[in-house]
Write a structure and sequence with these properties.
Blueprint (H helix, E strand, L loop, with lengths): L3 H4 L21 H16 L11 E7 L3 E6 L3 H11 L8 E6 L5
Antiparallel strand pairs: 1-2, 1-3
Length: about 100
């Protein structure tokens, strides 16, 4: 995960924040998104109780299978991720989260 401040830095100098989120492949999109938002709130927005879906963007990739990055914003995109990861012996995907500056 990258804060908006980190995204202003050159890519080589950015320091990411990371977290592991374990999900079962049969989990519905709405529940998976809730798990993602909890992890995102903990690391990017620790002082905020509620964050808008527009405050961040997510992409996913699976090295050697689907190197991406592919957007992760809709149920259809989530199903695509699950379909690519499920055949793996140990299904794993990398989710990249970037904070988005919302114009006020």
């Amino acid at each position: 995960m990258f804060t908006a401040e980190e995204l202003k830095k050159p890519a080589a100098r950015r320091i990411s924040k990371s977290n592991l989120v374990d999900l079962v492949p049969t989990m519905d999109w709405i529940d998976a998104m809730a798990h993602f938002k909890i992890a995102i709130c903990d690391l990017l927005f620790p002082q905020q109780v509620v964050i808008a879906d527009e405050a961040f963007e997510m992409t996913w990739s699976i090295p050697c299978v689907a190197p991406g990055p592919f957007m992760l914003k809709t149920e259809a995109q989530y199903k695509q991720l699950i379909s690519k990861a499920s055949p793996m012996k140990n299904p794993t995907a990398r989710i990249l989260v970037n904070e988005v500056q919302i114009a006020v």
